[in-house]
Specification:
Layout (H helix, E strand, L loop, with lengths): L19 H35 L3 H35 L9 H13 L3 H21 L2 H9 L14 H35 L14 H28 L4 E4 L3 E4 L3 H31 L3 H30 L3 H19 L6 E4 L12 H14 E2 L9 H8 L5 E2 L5 E6 L6 E8 L1 E2 L9 H7 L3 E2 L1 E9 L5 E6 L4 E2 L7 E2 L9 E3 L5 E6 L2 E5 L7 E2 L3 H10 L4 H4 L8 E3 L4 H8 L4 E2 L4 E5 L2 E12 L8 E2 H4 L3 H4 L12 E2 L1 E11 L5 E5 L5 H9 L12 H4 L6 H14 L4 H6 L4 E2 L15 E5 L8 E10 L7 E6 L10 E5 L9 H10 L1 H10 L5 E4 L3 E5 L2 E11 L7 E9 L2 E5 L2 H8 L6 E2 L7 E2 L6 H22 L4 H28 L21
């Protein structure tokens, strides 16, 4: 047999060792893997940089990046040096091992094993702790920037009389430094103790002294540093009491000092601070005394004091001083909490007024009184019967035009002037956004090159519906036309645009198609990142995991990639220090579609102000449904909030602009110092943009949740809990979530004219009757913008709340029978927003009722429910329902300021016959939908309906001419049917 061990018979062959080609291949693969991981990391960094540069906010990227790098290296290096020096020092102070015990003999093999690698092991340990510490510190970039750029609030806390900025900006940074110090002290202590043990400085089982003098001195100093840091913690804890949260039985969640904090915990923390300082000095003294006796006694005394003084003594004070007379003891501190909370959430100027809840006009009112009240109902509010949360499918059916367009689940309410009288009116508005699910054939080219954008605005009057229950569109068709001035209709950035598109290259993009064929375009904006550079293409191919970006011939000169396309994510990216509202809304401003995004500055460090979880307080029946209305900052706990920034995102160019809205907010001023030039001054907001700004819903929901308790300004009343309210559940939704607030142009009792408002109702805790009505002036151009008004209902009588009103609607026999008829066949009934309007001391409730009938899978307005002072009407139109409720049927009234009444115009038999024929044709059309649907019969009925309406119009015109009445005929309509086309 050959000698496999080598020698004269042949070379030695090492079993299991790969051959040279195999080693070369493995090495090559390893290098490629490392390069691949490096390029993947580079791609993420590079694409982020390119995106920030494309939106002209590169300063945000660099500021955050350099802050993170600085914190990473500074604190990582500090931790690495601290641990490394203590390991080196413990090794240097090791004792000679001349007489080795059995314990040391067992450790000797470990010492010998690591001896050749001591330097590398030291570097590895210090590098590891440095990386961990650096990464942790880098995450504190917000805390650092707020500390170094903080500006004063010019308000002082009532206990320590320090500026609020100390708690909001300074204290969080001091706590981080303290936590870092504790971590460093513990790691250094562990590393030093292990090193001393390994090299004989500490002994566990050996006879004689357990530690050498050097080890004793070293570890004592580290323990002294730890105890000194504990002393600092006790001192900071004193100030932390002002922002400490606790559960207070009388009020629930509580922030700030209570009686026991001010009179027991505060002096206890001061005493413990002094004891900790003395204990730390005793540990340092071991450098000279070389004994653990005094430090151990001092440490034991500190622990015992913490138990007795810091735990037992406050419990005794609470039990024997506070509980027997809690209201008297806690009242001064509750008052501080009341004032701080109201200030921190911007509800300190809330105007609370007593409201009768019952009309001053009696049931025996004269006809003129009823006519006046009917006119007051028109003047009290522009009652919106088009519910933006219901009619999206109707917009989709009538105005989608192409399957590759779509509308959001929830539309928005804004104000636009009509071309006829120039007056603002509440308008339901939505954008025809890109819907890739409707693309005829999904593939990479179609999804990312051909179908890239939506097209046009669709808007409808909020206060009207046509004869078929369809919206009266003021902007309609494709391309969109109507009351709005000319504007750029292409929508490259929107709430439903969540994928990337590559535009501007050789591929043409589809606008829409009509009878003449496809209309194409090529993006002319400067948005996005240029893909001419092969490095950019490679980076995006990796970042989006799409290799075709690298080699596709569809990408050429001028190609640009658009991504991060929803308004919310664009604003969040350029201003990561802001909290973004859950609902962006579109507006046409100066020939452009602008997405308007409300943004908040928040803090968790306002002394005495109670905390709230934003995700909980901004949730309602709309956010609970599967739609685009999201809650804001799900888990964020804050106790200070301001709507300090209004942001816009251009739907065509994607340009993001941030405007300072709250010019007094110190938190915003701090961030503006940290990121100079990113936020434009308030004066830069144009008048046209201001006309569409509104009070944000999420802030309003946070404030209304606080006002369920903090509408009370007296501590004694607050402590009794007798005035606690709750936000009622949505009576039209079975989800069990809170009713959403509604935008509505309305007039509160102390206002002379209607104002665009956001309103809600309150009920007593655990009951269904109404306790209060709340409204805020939501019109940005108004001098009263942001003013909160609460109408407080009497407690001696009960006024029906939303659920009771809904129950009343459902229980009335005539209404129940009518609802049953509406549900005939496979039709479905949907209730719209239940609107509440203060009127003549009472409350007017209005609720539109929609029907999805037969083959029509979209809701149409069929009825309007109205109730006032116990009188209920269920009619085809809002006007008819109001007439019936106020007993003015058969008469048409002019607005109340004229004081005149116009008698009804007589209807000729010819007109009446034509109207009867129209009703028959309409009923036949509805029957055709229910019975099939039978589209042939439906089309026939629609033609007969059109002919009958035309005959009625002609007959009425002839009657008017013969009677000499020049104003008769249909002069008040828009001339458009539900689809926006001429009738």
């Amino acid at each position: 047999m050959p000698d496999r061990g080598g020698g004269p018979t042949g070379p030695r062959i090492r079993a299991g060792r790969p051959s040279r080609p195999a080693r070369t291949l493995l090495m090559t693969l390893g290098v490629l893997a490392v390069l691949g991981m490096a390029f993947t990391m580079f791609a993420g960094f590079w694409t982020d940089w390119l995106w920030y540069r494309s939106v002209h906010y590169s300063s945000v990227f660099t500021t955050v990046l350099w802050t993170k790098i600085g914190l990473f290296f500074v604190f990582g290096l500090l931790m690495a040096v601290a641990v490394g020096v203590n390991i080196w020092l413990a090794h240097r102070l090791r004792p000679p091992l001349s007489a080795m015990s059995m314990e040391q003999q067992s450790l000797d093999r470990y010492r010998m094993g690591i001896a050749p690698y001591k330097r590398w092991l030291l570097l590895a340990v210090t590098a590891l702790v440095g990386l961990i510490a650096g990464a942790s510190a880098a995450g504190q970039w917000r805390t650092w920037l707020m500390w170094v750029n903080g500006v004063p609030f010019h308000q002082k806390d009532p206990q320590f009389h320090l500026d609020v900025s100390f708690y909001a900006f300074d204290l969080p940074w001091y706590r981080f430094l303290l936590g870092f110090g504790f971590a460093a002290a513990v790691l250094c202590l562990i590393a030093a103790a292990l090193t001393h043990y390994l090299y004989g400085g500490l002994r566990v089982t050996s006879p004689g002294a357990r530690a050498t003098a050097a080890a004793t001195g070293h570890l004592s100093v580290l323990l002294g540093i730890f105890v000194a840091l504990k002393a600092v913690a006790y001192w900071l804890d004193r100030y932390g009491l002002a922002v400490k949260s606790s559960d207070f039985k009388a009020t629930g969640d509580w922030t700030g000092l209570r009686y026991v904090d001010a009179n027991a915990y505060l002096p206890a923390k001061t005493i413990l601070f002094c004891i900790a300082v003395i204990c730390a000095l005793l540990f340092f003294a071991t450098l000279w005394r070389r004994t653990w006796q005094l430090p151990v006694i001092g440490f034991g005394l500190m622990v015992l004091s913490a138990i007795l003084i810091g735990g037992l003594y406050p419990a005794i004070v609470q039990k024997f001083q506070v509980q027997p007379n809690e209201q008297a003891k806690e009242a001064p501190y509750v008052q501080k909490n009341l004032e701080a909370t109201r200030e921190a959430y911007g509800i300190d100027d809330t105007k609370v007024s007593e409201y009768a809840g019952k009309s001053a006009t009696s049931d025996q009112a004269t006809a003129s009184d009823k006519a006046r009240l009917r006119g007051d109902a028109d003047a009290a509010a522009s009652i919106r019967i088009m519910d933006p949360n219901i009619v999206s499918p109707t917009f989709q059916q009538l105005q989608q035009m192409k399957n590759y367009y779509g509308f959001p689940t929830n539309l928005d309410v804004d104000r636009y002037s009509t071309t006829k009288d120039g007056k603002d009116q509440d308008t339901v508005i939505g954008l025809r956004e890109l819907n890739l699910d409707g693309v005829p054939k999904n593939n990479w080219i179609n999804d990312h090159f051909r179908y890239t954008h939506g097209y046009g605005v669709v808007a409808a009057k909020g206060t009207e519906a046509d004869s078929q229950g369809q919206p009266v569109f003021t902007e309609y068709d494709l391309p969109s036309r109507g009351d709005l001035p000319t504007y750029q209709q292409r929508i490259y950035y929107g709430e439903k645009t969540t994928t990337y598109s590559i535009v501007g290259g050789p591929q043409k993009e589809i606008d829409y198609s009509d009878d003449s064929g496809e209309k194409t375009t090529s993006y002319a904006g400067k948005s996005g990142v240029n893909l001419d550079n092969p490095i950019n293409r490679a980076a995006y191919a990796v970042a989006f995991n799409e290799p075709q970006i690298l080699y596709s011939g569809a990408i050429g000169k001028g190609s640009r990639i658009l991504y991060n396309r929803t308004p919310k994510e664009r604003v969040e990216a350029v201003a990561p220090w802001l909290t973004i509202d859950g609902d962006a809304y579109p507006a046409v401003v100066k020939g452009r579609i602008q997405w308007i995004v409300d943004a908040y500055t928040t803090s968790n460090g306002y002394p005495y102000s109670s905390r709230t979880t934003l995700g909980d307080t901004t949730a309602d029946s709309l956010t609970a449904a599967n739609n685009n209305r999201a809650v804001v900052a799900q888990q964020n706990q804050v106790n200070y909030i301001r709507n300090s920034v209004k942001a816009t995102v251009d739907a065509y160019t994607g340009e993001v602009k941030l405007y300072q809205w709250d010019t007094k907010d110190p938190v915003l001023k701090t961030w503006m110092k940290a990121f100079p030039g990113t936020v434009q001054p308030r004066k830069a907001i144009s008048r046209e943009l201001t006309a569409h700004l509104r009070y944000p819903q999420d802030l309003f929901k946070v404030q209304r949740e606080l006002l369920t308790r903090y509408h009370v300004t007296d501590a004694q009343t607050f402590l009794t809990g007798s005035e606690v309210w709750q936000v009622p559940d949505d009576p039209t939704n079975k989800s069990g979530n809170a009713v959403p607030p509604y935008y509505l142009s309305m007039k509160m009792p102390d206002q002379s004219n209607q104002a665009f408002s956001l309103s809600t109702t309150f009920t007593p805790n655990g009951r269904y009757n109404l306790s209060a009505f709340m409204s805020v002036d939501a019109e940005a151009g108004s001098s009263d913008y942001g003013k909160i008004r609460i109408l407080k209902l009497p407690t001696s009588t009960t006024v029906d709340g939303p659920r009771q009103v809904q129950s009343q609607f459902n229980s009335e026999q005539d209404i129940a029978a009518a609802i049953k008829l509406l549900k005939g066949g496979d039709s479905e009934v949907e209730y719209g927003n239940l609107l509440t309007v203060p009127l003549d001391g009472g409350l007017l409730y209005v609720e539109p009722v929609y029907v999805r009938g037969g083959g029509l899978k979209y809701p149409l307005l069929r009825k309007v429910l109205v109730t006032y002072e116990g009188r209920t009407a269920f009619e085809n139109t809002l006007g008819e329902a109001l007439d019936k409720v106020f007993g003015t049927q058969g008469a048409t009234t002019t607005p109340p300021d004229t004081g005149t009444t116009t008698p009804p115009t007589p209807t000729s038999p010819t007109v009446q016959q034509a109207l009867d024929d129209a009703q028959k044709a309409y009923d036949a059309g509805q029957k055709a939908l229910r019975d099939g649907p039978d589209w042939t019969a439906y089309d026939k009925a629609q033609k007969e309906l059109k002919d009958a309406l035309k005959r009625a119009q002609d007959a009425e015109a002839r009657a008017g001419q013969s009677g000499g009445d020049k104003n008769s005929g249909d002069k008040n309509g828009s001339g458009k049917n539900g689809s926006g086309k001429k009738s």
